[in-house]
């Protein structure tokens, strides 16, 4: 029975499960959706903005955070856990820069975060971090990267991925609509991220936040207006596609 | 007594029974225990069915008082939102009564004067066809109250010429499967029906071990015993709070015989659902 093996993080169940790690993955699903896309010359992070209470300062509710000038991440899951991981990663980025006089590679910082998470799955008295992260950026060699980490401490490189609530639906949408040729166009990559989020975000563009990094350029957060423009364009394209369909039939 | 890995000392279970001394200590009631017992006694676990206009209790069960050909029951917030958006907006539904009950899961502290606007069981019938009944049940009916609920609603000798449709949702971890829950396409619909239900089913049947719980199970068992055709549509989801994707997962049920004639305007329904979401959003900063 799961109940006998899920209390302590360091105990395996007879069939090889670490239940606390699996339960941490359930906590990730409680966070709102985040999507990451790797284009040829751009990396895009899109998130479903959580609705903010009337008296709450919007700036303090952020899902997309810069780790360094050339790397940023989006997370889904426990807010407080994310804050701790982000702080550790930011310090590591600067420490690396000062020590070896080179900025971190995206893979390095992803590995750092993943190792940190894994330590917490093997420690006495500590629970795993309840967050998954999408880490994007450009390395010095100019190649765009997208990595995903999860509470177990694994990390993988992806062309496009989603985490959080309804991640499966978004991932299926990305599998159907991601093409290498289209991703050579920056605008197409941005539109794909927004279209993927619109599959699961209920109130349209108002609840979407978007960040991009282009080669040799700093992180750019889209304003609400810019996102609205993209959403309007997408809706126009949808209408035209539907008109064409009805004409054919 | 045993020490665990973390050094905490726990009592090991023993079938020989506990020692006498320890039993006496446990039996002595503290003033706090007495107060809790007093509070619990005040709160009755009776299920009362009240008439709409007069707010007096019904003398007979609901379905003995009114004749019913179709009974649709929504249990849980997602199922209730589905019926509110897709069924109740395309026709005039008149409230005929409500069920008032209290148990430990109720959020309100006052058991005496629960208002109808708070979450619990409301019964409606369609004005244009008064034998079509609908129940919106968004409260939890405890195990000891389920029998009372069934008696007050169905009565002890129900008429057999009616069809019952139950809609509810459960967390996906309740779905018994050897696959990991991460690979399941949630939300998804499964059905469980009584022997006398002969109509086509709108989704696959719940696979073995086909276990359901709580009030939906009680209603289905009741219908099976009394040979009433009934079907339960169960939506497994990974989001237990009110969620539009879970609510929309019930859409295949709209093509069933019992709901077909009741749904008219689907785009309007989607708008209604959006409005429901906005008014129901609970702020929480734990998860982002």
Automatic annotation (TrEMBL), chain A:
GO biological process: meiotic cell cycle; proteasomal protein catabolic process; regulation of meiosis I; ubiquitin-dependent protein catabolic process
Cross-referenced Pfam families: Proteasome, Proteasome_A_N
Domain Proteasome alpha-type subunits as annotated: residue spans: 5-27
Annotated coiled-coil segments of the chain: 222-249
A GO CC term attached to the entry: cytosol
Entry's localization field: Cytoplasm; Nucleus
SUPFAM superfamilies on file: N-terminal nucleophile aminohydrolases (Ntn hydrolases)
Keywords, alphabetical: Coiled coil, Cytoplasm, Nucleus, Proteasome
Record-linked CDD domains: proteasome_alpha_type_7
InterPro entries noted in UniProt: Ntn_hydrolases_N, Proteasome_alpha, Proteasome_alpha-type, Proteasome_asu_N, Proteasome_sua/b
Family: Belongs to the peptidase T1A family.
Protein name: Proteasome subunit alpha type
Classification lineage: Eukaryota, Metazoa, Chordata, Craniata, Vertebrata
TrEMBL record, chain B:
First-listed, main subcellular location of the protein, grouped into a coarse class: cytoplasm
Keywords recorded for this protein, A-Z: Chaperone, Cytoplasm, Endoplasmic reticulum
InterPro entries linked to this entry: Proteasome_assmbl_chp_1
GO biological-process terms attached to the record: cerebellar granule cell precursor proliferation; chaperone-mediated protein complex assembly; proteasome core complex assembly
Gene Ontology cellular-component terms listed: cytosol; endoplasmic reticulum; Golgi apparatus; nucleoplasm; protein folding chaperone complex
Location(s) in or outside the cell: Cytoplasm
Biased composition (Basic and acidic residues): 27-36
GO molecular function: molecular adaptor activity; proteasome binding
Region (Disordered) location: 14-36
Subunit structure: Forms a heterodimer with PSMG2. The PSMG1-PSMG2 heterodimer interacts directly with the PSMA5 and PSMA7 proteasome alpha subunits. Forms a heterodimer with psmg2.
Function: Chaperone protein which promotes assembly of the 20S proteasome as part of a heterodimer with PSMG2. The PSMG1-PSMG2 heterodimer binds to the PSMA5 and PSMA7 proteasome subunits, promotes assembly of the proteasome alpha subunits into the heteroheptameric alpha ring and prevents alpha ring dimerization.
Homology family: Belongs to the PSMG1 family.
Name of the protein described by the UniProt record: Proteasome assembly chaperone 1
Organism: Loxodonta africana (African elephant)
């Amino acid at each position: 029975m799961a109940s006998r093996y899920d209390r302590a993080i360091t105990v395996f169940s007879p069939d090889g499960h670490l239940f606390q790690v699996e339960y941490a993955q359930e906590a990730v699903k409680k966070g709102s959706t985040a999507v990451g896309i790797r284009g040829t010359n751009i990396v895009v992070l899109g998130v479903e903005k959580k609705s903010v209470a009337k008296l709450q300062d919007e700036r303090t509710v952020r899902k997309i955070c810069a780790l360094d000038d050339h790397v940023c991440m989006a997370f889904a899951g426990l807010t407080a856990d994310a804050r701790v991981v982000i702080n550790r990663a930011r310090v590591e980025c600067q420490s690396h820069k000062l020590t070896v006089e080179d900025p971190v590679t995206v893979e390095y910082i992803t590995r750092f975060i993943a190792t940190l998470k894994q330590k917490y799955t093997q420690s006495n008295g500590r629970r795993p971090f309840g967050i998954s992260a999408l880490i994007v950026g450009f390395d010095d060699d100019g190649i765009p990267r997208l990595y995903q980490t999860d509470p177990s401490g694994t990390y993988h490189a992806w062309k496009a991925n989603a985490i959080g609530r309804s991640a499966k639906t978004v991932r299926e949408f990305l599998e159907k609509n991601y093409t290498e040729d289209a991703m050579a166009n920056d605008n197409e990559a941005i539109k794909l991220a927004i279209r993927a989020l619109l599959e699961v975000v209920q109130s349209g563009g108002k609840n979407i936040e978007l960040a991009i990094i282009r080669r040799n350029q700093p992180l750019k957060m889209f304003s609400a207006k810019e996102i609205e423009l993209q959403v309007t364009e997408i809706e126009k394209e949808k209408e035209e596609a539907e008109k064409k369909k009805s004409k054919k039939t | 007594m045993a020490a665990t890995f973390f050094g905490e000392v726990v009592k090991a279970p023993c079938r020989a029974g506990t020692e006498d001394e320890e039993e006496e200590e446990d039996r002595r009631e503290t003033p706090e225990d007495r107060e809790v017992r007093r509070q619990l006694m005040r709160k009755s676990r009776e299920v009362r069915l009240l008439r709409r206009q007069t707010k007096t209790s019904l003398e007979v069960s609901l379905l003995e008082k009114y004749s019913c050909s179709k009974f649709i029951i929504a249990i849980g917030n997602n199922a209730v939102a589905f019926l509110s958006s897709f069924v109740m907006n395309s026709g005039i539904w008149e409230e005929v009564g409500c069920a008032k009950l209290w148990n430990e899961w109720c959020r309100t502290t006052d058991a005496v004067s629960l208002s109808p606007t708070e979450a619990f069981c409301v019964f409606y019938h369609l004005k244009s066809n008064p034998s079509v009944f609908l129940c919106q049940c968004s409260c939890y009916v405890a195990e000891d109250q389920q029998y009372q609920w069934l008696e007050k609603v169905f009565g002890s000798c129900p008429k057999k010429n009616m069809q019952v449709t139950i809609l509810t949702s459960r967390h996906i971890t309740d779905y018994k499967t050897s696959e990991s829950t991460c690979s399941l396409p949630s939300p998804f619909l499964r059905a469980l029906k009584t022997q006398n239900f002969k109509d086509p089913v709108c989704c696959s049947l719940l696979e073995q071990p086909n276990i359901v719980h709580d009030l939906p199970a009680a209603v289905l068992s009741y219908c099976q015993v009394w040979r009433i055709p009934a079907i339960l549509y169960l939506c497994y989801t990974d989001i237990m709070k009110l969620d539009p994707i879970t609510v929309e997962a019930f859409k295949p049920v709209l093509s069933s015989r019992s709901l077909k004639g009741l749904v008219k305007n689907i785009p309007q329904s989607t708008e209604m659902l959006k409005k429901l979401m906005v008014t129901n959003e609970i702020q929480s900063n734990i998860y982002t």
